[in-house]
Amino acid sequence: DETIVTERIAARVASVTKVDLNQVEPLVVLKYEPGQFFKLHHDGSMRPSTVFVYLNGLEPGSGGETAFPHLGFQVRPSAYSALMWNNRTPEGDADLRMKHEAKPVSKGTKYAMNCFVNVNPQRDASGIIVKHLTE
To answer: CA-to-CA distance for 116 and 47, rounded, in angstroms?
Structure first.
């Protein structure tokens, strides 16, 4: 069972990626200590979107960046911020430009969360009411 906090995070992910809540996969919390990294990979064409949340920041020079080598940029972890990207081309194929990696942490500990959106339903969200805020 999910807590109200995880339900709200999943609902926010569904909102920003413009999908139904039932397509949001279970959230994955990550911890990277000095020397740890995640090799270059693609999240898969079965996942149209990824929202990657930084739960804390790291000082400049501490590593832990999320790098997109095919696009030529990387992002340093910044507390309470998020990256969002599409993993598929308009035709539904894997967009291999979106291969990314977590660079090694050299100092401190990086906490983050993967929020994956799937093309198929991943949860029974029938008991959850999502209210969209309007301005």
So the answer is: 6
pTM metric for this prediction: 0.93
pLDDT above 80 (res 134) = no
In a 10 Å sphere around its CB, with 0-12 CB exposed, 13-18 middle and 19+ buried, how is residue 29 labelled? exposed
**Cβ(105)–Cβ(33) below 8 Å:** yes
pLDDT tens sequence across 93-102: 999 999 999 9
Report yes or no: 127 and 11 within 8 Å, Cβ to Cβ. no
Per DSSP, the three-state class of 21 is helix
Q: Which residue has the tokens 């959850």?
A: 128
Task: Round to whole Å and give the CA distance between 88 and 75.
Answer: 21
Beta bridge partners of 66: 75, 102
Q: How far apart are CA 14 and CA 62, in angstroms?
A: 32
In order of 39, 49, 57, 70, 118, the CA distances from 42 in angstroms are 10, 11, 24, 11, 14
Question: In this structure, are residues 26 and 122 in contact, taking their beta carbons and an 8 Å threshold?
Answer: yes
